């Protein structure tokens, strides 16, 4: 059995993200990923059972990274409105600083892959922090009593759509734009 090298695993993750953003799911292959990562095709199978396993692990890795970034400044004792603002601001920072990962997440989420791979909601600490924030807001009657995923979607998608336009160089998000989107999101989820 070959020894796993985290640098090679990271190179494979990076190559997968970059190639998917460049050529999409239909044209990607393990050999193309290996070549882009500068590893042998056999090396990929040291880390992943198959292409689906690799996509699943890359997706979960990026999702966890994004979730941790979104909650890095959130303290459970913060006022709900302040936490909401911080989550959305940190999400925009993640997108701006990790454009390839964000575009990968967008493409992956819009594809049939999540259903095909039977991906479930991650139970990592960052995801739990987001749900704790929503649950506390509902308990305190600050947030609407809707499903957490619905409420979180009103925090994620407005920033994601705006950031997509910025990443693709169609607009520049100003502080006023960010404040307006955060206010509209807050108006959508608060009681």
From TrEMBL:
Domain HTH tetR-type: 6-66
Feature: DNA-binding region: 29-48
Listed SUPFAM superfamilies: Homeodomain-like
Coiled-coil zones: none
A Pfam family recorded for this sequence: TetR_HI_0893_C
Membrane-spanning ranges: none
Keyword tRNA processing among UniProt keywords: no
Keyword vocabulary terms for this entry: DNA-binding
InterPro entries: DNA-bd_HTH_TetR-type_CS, Homeodomain-like_sf, HTH-type_TetR-like_transc_reg, HTH_TetR, TetR-like_HI_0893_C
Protein name in the entry: TetR/AcrR family transcriptional regulator
